Amino acid sequence: MKVKSLLDTKSQEVVSLDSGSSVEDAIRLMHNKKISAVMVMENGRTSGIFTERDVVRCYIAKDGKKFGDVPLRDAMTTDLIVAGQNDNVGDIMAIMVQNNIRHLPVVERDAVIGMLSIRDVIGFCSVPESVPAGR
To answer: Domain ranges in the chain?
Structure first.
């Protein structure tokens, strides 16, 4: 099964913030959208990802600095591992497990077109092909 098939079963909204936005802005956005990761943009291009794990890392690294005073560019993860629409979902699951990541941007022509969570991938892989999703 291909990543495209998985993307077709879920919302493809990609939530993002500018790299100059604060960590607090990201936390509030993630809370309001009920998501656990946002893409970080700089000059119209993806520059990183900010996840719940980054909140914890930021808290420890900034040692008491207020989240409102920390720009995302100083707290985001920049080593992006990404998927393509034609990648095999099983391979993507293995990559996520091996790299201990919970969120994987899906990229096409240098643009993020979707976001997969480990929960999306596991749920998709656990549904037998003969049973339509959602049943």
So the answer is: 3-126
